[in-house]
Amino acid sequence: MELGNLILSRIPFIETFSEFVNGEYHDNTILGEKVGNNLNIQIAKLENGFTVVNHHGFWRPDPMGDDDTIKAFTKVGQIVRRLDNGPLVMCGDLNIIHDSPAMRPLDFLRDLTHDHNIKTTLSGLKYDGEVACDHILVNERVKVYDFKIHPDLVSDHLALSANVEVA
């Protein structure tokens, strides 16, 4: 069993894989028990040369994260840095804000949520307040034409989108 976000693309995949950033795979994991055990990162390499990375980070009450968050994102940063040899987009509910120490291993990427001064990515359906915990990050090989946060209620988070192409 793996938990994570879904990567959809109109461009065909040439390779997909995932890596665990906390623990390792165990058979017979029961949903709701030790979910952190399955914390992983999904990677899709597309036919056009783009690499798309998706990650759903630990949820902690403090959007700055904690020591476990820093440890997990250190590994996320190492994995993503290895993929940084072509155009790369990373996205997901990272469950931390840009100023979190856990984001520092990803400083080689541009955080569009931060660059566009997004105050919150929460819809208020489940949690309320100003927490920009969802992110789209790109490397220097990606040109961003448009970045939006969509106000439509689709979940407890607001949807983010970006139109991008190879720089």
Features:
single chain, 167 residues, alpha+beta, Deoxyribonuclease I, Chain A, 6-stranded mixed sheet, two-stranded antiparallel sheet, 30% strand, globular
Structure, explained:
It is a single chain. With 167 residues, the protein is α+β, with helices and mostly antiparallel strands. The chain has one domain: Endonuclease/exonuclease/phosphatase (Deoxyribonuclease I, Chain A, 4-Layer Sandwich). 12% of the residues lie in helices and 30% in strands. It has two helices and eight strands. β7 and β8 form a beta hairpin. The longest helix has 16 residues. The model has no long low-confidence stretch (mean pLDDT 86).
